[in-house]
Amino acid sequence: MGGILAVRRSHGRAVTRMQYEALFEFLRTLRNEVGEPELIRLLGLSSSAHGRRLGEQQAASAPDRDFQTFVAQFRPPRYAEVLTHEVIEDSDAAFELKVTECVWASVFREAGLDGEIGHAAVCNMDYTWPGAFNPEIRMERTKTLMQGDDHCNHRYVRETSKE
Fold first, then answer.
1. How far apart are CA 25 and CA 146, in angstroms?
2. What is the reported pLDDT for 50?
3. Cβ atoms of 71 and 95 closer than 8 Å
4. Could you tell me the sign of the dihedral formed by the alpha carbons of 10, 23, 33, 148, in that order?
5. 2 - beta bridge partners?
């Protein structure tokens, strides 16, 4: 099974690279025209809006807006073609993933656009997505492969109302 996943992940990387090729050229041009800080700011705005739209769309098609419904999508083998990840915590109040390989981080790194640019373009949406699905869900993260860490630590937390 590991060999099959490696082939699928390699295919996923190739497809992602092709899909992002035109974007990479645009990002390089934009960086040259407006500077890297402004590019990062604009990418962050766009990515945040994309995360909100994704969360709203997911909520509209989900059977409910429960925490477990949201995090179910991250349980392996989901995303196996693009991520190597394991569940670190899975409770009613928290769900944490450790991601040790990410196709997007690899492709952005190969293009020389990882770091803050890649984070703003891809990873930033992870913060707005859960809250758009359910305002009681938030994502915490202190490490990303995109920014050069050895893993990403996605932690989704269900806020409980304080009465």
1. 19
2. 97
3. yes
4. negative
5. none
In 3D, which of 40, 67, 68, 70 has the Cα closest to residue 54? 70
Residue 133 scores a pLDDT above 90: yes
Please provide the average confidence, as pLDDT, over all residues in the chain.
92
> pTM for this structure?
0.87
| Across 1-5, 99-103, 112-116, least confident range | 1-5
Residue 82 per-residue DSSP state:
T
2 vs 138, residue with greater confidence: 138
Query: In whole angstroms, how far apart are CA 76 and each of 86, 96, 99, 111?
Result: 7, 12, 11, 28
Question: What are residue 137's DSSP bridge partners?
Answer: 158
Q: Residue 151 pLDDT more than 70?
A: yes
Helices (H), the chain: 2-34, 36-61, 67-71, 103-110, 116-118, 125-133
Q: Which of 8, 23, 47 is nearest to 108 (CA)?
A: 23
Give me the domains of the chain, ranges plus CATH numbers: 2-158 (3.30.1380)
Q: How far is it, in rounded angstroms, from Cα 121 to Cα 126?
A: 11
